[in-house]
Amino acid sequence: MPASSLSYVFSTLAFLGFVVVCIPFPWHLKIQNAGTCIYMFWAAVACLNLFVNSVVWAGDAINRAPVWCDICESCFLELCPVVKADHVIQLRVLLSL
Description:
Number of domains: 1
Helix content: over 70%
Largest sheet: none
Low-confidence stretches: none
Mean pLDDT: 88
Structural class: mainly alpha
Number of helices: 4
Radius of gyration: 16 Å
């Protein structure tokens, strides 16, 4: 496949990942499942971030939005520790069952 079609596939899958994560979010929020809600929120942020980046920088690497680059970097730097802390929250809930 050419590189441009792979970019469209990646953008589509990133957006579908965002949508699929957001569909059950209200259900988990309703039952106050904090660990799952935190994980779903950060997964949605990561998918949306990847989607926007794949659309904005499709085909080139010109820095059109330097502030957006700083926002994306801070989101991805926060993603790893937050997901690990969220796993600890979910494990504590499972151990209390």
